[in-house]
């Protein structure tokens, strides 16, 4: 073929590659200049400020186990026997609530059964019908053992306990094992300050549950609005310490006093865990003040 034919073919091809017009066939093979010349987005990397302790002053607490972690950077700033086994008492209910949030919808109606249990109760009535959401309020705000058992019993007690231990494993709680949903003492039931920090972090990341642990007081009812329960948070520090968002208390004679706290200070979030304490509220107050006085932050520019 003559040279001018090839020349015409090449020119025509380039014309339609760069200016395909409205023809769908030409647009399919057209040279997409926008995509080709589009600047590739640089991956966004966020490096949170790193906390560090400003002095050698360690907090003096009666708790036999304690752990403080900065949630944004996952950096621990204080440890005392972080992996030692302790009785978790009602801090167990953090895991109970996480599992209940997995298996129930808030509006699921639960029939209360077999709630003759010792310890702290919200005074559920046998056969009462109440939503899963309200039972979670009873579990996390009032620390009702009967509420925790109602959640487990309705699902199937043994299956629920199995899910609690599966949840703990998935969260990396290697020093924890649960035999009941309320935290009643059992020689097999155990946890550690580090493990409870993992559980607390999972709860705080759940907006539904996070709202509950920061509730000071609430009145809830059964589905017929005939039975009412006034729930008061066991955590005395809630509303007393600025920045404290609650979380979960625990106490038995064998466990001593336990407390997992969510604390925010100057846009930094912390989890504070004390276990086997002689005075969990005094210890936590001490640790909050220590954070304010001794923990500083190093910003890293990329």
UniProtKB/TrEMBL annotation:
Short name of one Pfam family: Peptidase_S11
Coiled coil: none
An individual GO BP term: regulation of cell shape
Stretches assigned to the Peptidase S11 D-alanyl-D-alanine carboxypeptidase A N-terminal domain: 58-278
Residues at which substrate binds: 248
Keywords from the named record: Cell shape, Cell wall biogenesis/degradation, Hydrolase, Peptidoglycan synthesis, Signal
Family: Belongs to the peptidase S11 family.
Descriptive protein name: Peptidase S11 D-alanyl-D-alanine carboxypeptidase A N-terminal domain-containing protein
Natural source organism: Candidatus Roizmanbacteria bacterium CG_4_10_14_0_2_um_filter_39_13
């Amino acid at each position: 073929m003559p040279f001018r034919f090839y020349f015409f073919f090449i020119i025509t091809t380039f014309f339609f590659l760069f200016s395909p017009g409205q023809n769908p066939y030409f647009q399919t093979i057209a040279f997409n200049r926008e995509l080709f010349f589009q600047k590739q987005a640089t991956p966004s990397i966020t490096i949170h400020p790193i906390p560090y302790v400003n002095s050698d002053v360690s907090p003096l607490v009666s708790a036999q186990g304690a752990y403080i972690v900065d949630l944004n950077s996952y950096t621990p700033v204080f440890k005392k026997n972080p992996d030692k086994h302790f009785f978790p008492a009602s801090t167990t209910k953090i895991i109970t609530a996480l599992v209940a949030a997995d298996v129930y919808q808030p509006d699921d109606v639960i029939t209360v059964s077999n709630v003759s249990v010792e310890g702290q109760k919200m005074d559920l009535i046998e056969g009462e019908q109440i939503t899963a959401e309200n039972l979670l309020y009873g579990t996390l705000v009032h620390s009702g053992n009967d509420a925790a058992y109602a959640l487990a019993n309705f699902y199937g007690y043994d299956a629920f306990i199995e899910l609690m231990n599966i949840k703990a494993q998935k969260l990396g709680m290697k020093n924890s094992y649960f035999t009941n949903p309320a935290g009643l003492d059992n020689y097999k039931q155990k946890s550690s300050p580090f493990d409870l920090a993992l559980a607390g972090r999972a709860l705080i990341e759940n907006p539904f549950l996070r709202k509950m642990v920061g509730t000071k007081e609430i009145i809830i009812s059964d589905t017929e609005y005939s039975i009412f329960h006034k729930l008061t948070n066991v955590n005395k520090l809630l509303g007393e310490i600025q920045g404290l968002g609650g979380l979960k208390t625990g106490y038995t004679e064998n466990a001593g006093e336990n407390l997992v706290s969510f604390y925010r200070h100057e846009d930094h979030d912390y989890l504070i865990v004390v276990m086997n304490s002689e005075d969990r509220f005094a210890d936590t107050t001490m640790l909050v003040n220590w954070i304010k006085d001794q923990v500083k932050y190093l910003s890293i520019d990329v």
